[in-house]
Amino acid sequence: KLVIYLLILNSVNAQIDKGTYMLGGSTTASFLLRDGSNTVDVNIAPGLGYFITNNLAIGSLLDVSLNIRTAAYSSTIFGMNPYARLFFGKSEHSSFFTTASLGFITVHSNNDKTRFGYNGKCDIGIVYFLNPSIGLETTVRYSYNKYEDFNAVSRLGLYFGFQIYFGRNND
User: Fold this and answer.
1) Of 135, 134, 138, which Cα lies nearest the Cα of 126?
2) Could you read off the pLDDT of 28-56 as tens digits, one per residue?
């Protein structure tokens, strides 16, 4: 009974109410060193979400990535990713969340070839609330990208981000 009581109390403390807006994003950088080929990837993903019900937000991310594989090849990726995010396991200053998104991407490379494709992402993460309006996030993300005339790319990565919550109930 004590465990059930603590879970109920815990979920009430950090609830994010219907009608709250969430503005922020995430970023990551990765470096791959291989014989004869080094890769640098930088990604930023600003986004805006709206809580359609308590603890469930929908929104969209603008995904921008720069990929430099060699001195002779680089590419820039632009994507628009609608998403849904569910918060759970909340405490007074933190909450777990999971996010799923599916979107379209465009890849522009320096060899003048533009490719179109789609990507899907699935995240699980934790947000630490500095106060009721600002949260810092750490996320583990699996992503799948498929471009025309190109092999699919799957990635597992660690992302860091922040969110500003507008209209969140401060009770």
Assistant:
1) 138
2) 887 777 666 677 888 899 999 999 999 99
